[in-house]
Amino acid sequence: MYLDRMGFAYGADESRWSENAANTLGEGEGLYSKVLSGTEGVIFSRSTNLYALMTNDDPFQYFGGIGLAVRHLDGATPEMYVSNLRKKDQLKSQTLDEFVNQKMRSRYFHPRWIKAMQDSGYAGATAILDRMNNMWGGSDDT
Questions:
Q1: Residues 78 and 123 grouped into a single domain
Q2: Cross-strand partners of 84
Q3: Are residues 11 and 76 in the same domain?
Q4: What is the spatial distance between Cα 59 and Cα 97, in angstroms, rounded to a whole number?
Q5: Which residues of the chain have pLDDT under 50?
Q6: How far is 12 from 101, CA to CA, in rounded Å?
Q7: Claim to verify: residue 7 and residue 63 sit in the same structural domain
Q8: Domain span at 127
Q9: d(Cα 140, Cα 57) in Å, to the nearest integer?
Q10: Cβ distance 37 to 76 under 8 Å?
Q11: Claim: this prediction has a pTM higher than 0.90
């Protein structure tokens, strides 16, 4: 599904903009598949403390989707990295597991965050549910 929905081309020839490149090479083989095949690593950057990897579904849709697409094409999931740009003097790359584990400990398992969600009643409960749904979506991707 990811390859079919993300395989749209944009280039110098504006008459072909948004043309689905899913079967551009014939025999059901698409240009985007050719480009992704052989990918050894995928990088997702984080430059804010406001939004976390599990705050919304974009990371697992796009970052995880690329990982699943490569696994589908090559039979193995590529290395998944997060480029941590949140502190300009402490830039670093982390594996996806390292980044998620750090975020879980520092935010979602933090007693003050949990208490704030509890104090927020229904809104807090739905915020927790959103994160858990996104965590489940992300776990399905890697």
A1: yes
A2: 46, 92
A3: no
A4: 14
A5: none
A6: 42
A7: no
A8: 39-141
A9: 12
A10: no
A11: no
What is the torsion angle, in degrees rounded to the nearest 10, for the CA atoms of residue 118, residue 119, residue 122 and residue 125? -20
Closest CA to 49 of 85, 83, 81, 86: 86
Per-residue pLDDT reduced to its tens digit, 13-45: 888 777 777 666 655 567 888 889 999 999 998
User: How many structural domains is the chain composed of?
Assistant: 2
- Tell me which residue has tokens 């975020």: 103
Residues 6+ apart with CB under 8 A from 123: none
Are 45 and 31 in the same domain? no
15 and 74, same structural domain?
no
- Asked whether the beta carbons of 26 and 33 are under 8 A apart, the reply is no
Q: How far apart, in whole angstroms, are the C-alpha atoms of residue 109 and residue 29?
A: 44
